[in-house]
Design brief:
six-stranded mixed beta sheet; alpha/beta; six-stranded parallel beta sheet; 423 residues; single chain
Length: 423
């Protein structure tokens, strides 16, 4: 059985024994035949609250948040749709688009042009949020379970604040999109570190598709409700071709609840038991640009792998670990996944990117993880406590042979776009 895995921009084919292989994918929905019309209608017929044009007034300033370059958000469709609704009411000079980087690096002018289109990128002000630039932040008080809240000044001081993003299951925040476009997207480092501390990340409800009762998402909502007031929110769902299949807009929390419900129907897929081997990806480009992001694919696989089983993750990692941020440094701070996990749980403070290492180490304490990545070599992966392969199919066959007669493999060609569960 040959399966095309989402990998980089072109995919990766791998062969598996048909009689022992179960392929699990999200429910497929065709892309909207006229996405621009769908987005325009969504902005005018929101899930809850008034349409966007009824919210803004002449002379007001507007801040619009959007995902950074590691996300597949169709910014080139969504941002023009929002600006078209503002046209004739708000001057484009009074609009700022904020790239909700969280603690990620800022996007280059070339990347922003690719994200928005060259013409639009040249006509509108676009600013990368910088969680570490204290001069760009405003203190907004303490919210939720003791979260000190610093938010982007341009966001806080705008008259009208609009989030744009897309919704998919998230490995510790429940779902992406919605309030995450404010926190952690536009939050200061201290706020992000608190939201991602070891206790919250280690909570059993800090996982895929759970929001209420999830301490990470509960506090994200509390921060946004208390300090990051959103006047209008706009999210989409995407299929494997990254085409828009549904859109939601309006009051933030009602909109996000509706989008989550639809995303859950597409992504959550039942299986009949745990597997000896699970093959996963990180959904291809842009999400599989680095190993840091690929932890999401590993975590999706961990939901259905047997204790002591094998996870094979195919992620291109063209950006390496990456070299920016603290992920690589934290990974090298202990000699094994168990030591990493124990050290993180015992540490009184939170280090940047430790949450990704915590999730990775948790997966590795359950199963062996083997990675196929053109952007990283065997020594790189060994330094990350991971195993290396350049042949996914061969690695799976070896793992099945070791597991013995009756061993099975589950393949998640789209990685974290599919969240399997035993049902």
């Amino acid at each position: 059985m040959r399966v095309r895995l989402a990998y980089g921009e072109h995919g990766l084919d791998a062969d598996f024994p048909a009689e022992r292989t179960v392929v699990v994918e999200p429910a497929y929905v065709d892309g909207a035949p006229d996405p621009a019309a769908l987005l325009r209608r969504t902005l005018r017929e929101p899930v809850a609250g008034p349409p966007l044009r009824e919210i803004v007034r002449p002379g007001q300033t507007v801040a619009i948040s959007m995902c950074d370059g590691t996300r597949a958000q169709p910014r080139h469709l969504m941002i023009p749709a929002v600006l078209a609704e503002l046209d004739g009411i708000v001057d484009l000079d009074d609009v700022v688009i904020l790239v909700a980087t969280g603690t990620h690096r800022g996007n280059s002018p070339e990347e922003i042009a690719a994200m928005l289109g060259t013409d639009l990128a040249a006509r509108v002000r676009v600013v990368n949020h910088d969680a570490r630039d204290e001069s760009s932040l405003v203190w907004c008080g303490t919210h939720g379970d003791g979260v000190p809240v610093w938010l982007n000044r341009l966001w806080v001081e705008a008259d009208v604040r609009i989030t744009t993003g897309f919704v998919e299951p998230h490995f510790f925040a429940g779902f992406s999109g919605g309030p995450k476009l404010v926190a952690p997207g536009l939050a200061g480092l201290e706020t992000v570190l608190t939201l991602h501390d070891a206790k919250r990340i280690g909570h059993p409800s800090a996982t895929w598709a759970i929001c209420e009762g999830n301490p990470v998402h509960d506090d994200i909502r509390a921060v946004v409700a208390g300090a990051g007031k959103v006047d209008f929110a706009f999210d989409v769902l995407l299929n494997r071709e990254q085409q828009v299949v549904a859109a939601f807009a309006g009051e933030l929390f009602a909109m996000h609840a509706a989008a989550r419900s639809a995303a859950r129907e597409l992504a959550m897929r039942p299986v009949d038991g745990l597997f000896d081997v699970v093959v996963t990806t990180n959904s291809g480009f842009p999400l599989d640009q680095n190993l840091y992001q690929a932890v999401k694919g590993m975590t999706a696989a961990a939901t259905v792998v047997k204790e002591g089983g094998v996870i094979v993750c195919a992620a291109e990692c063209r950006d390496g670990f990456p070299d920016h941020g603290s992920y690589r440094e934290v990974l090298s701070s202990a000699e094994s996944p168990r030591a990493l996990l124990d050290g993180i749980m015992a540490r009184p403070d939170t280090r940047p990117d430790q949450w990704q290492v915590q999730m990775q180490a948790k997966v590795q304490c359950k199963a062996r993880v083997v990675v196929c990545a053109d952007g990283l070599g065997e020594e790189d992966l060994r330094a990350a406590h991971l195993e290396w392969t350049d042949d996914v199919g061969a690695t799976v066959r070896e793992a099945l042979a070791t597991a013995g007669e009756g061993a099975r493999v589950c393949v998640l060609p789209e990685g974290p776009q599919t969240i399997p569960y035993v049902g």
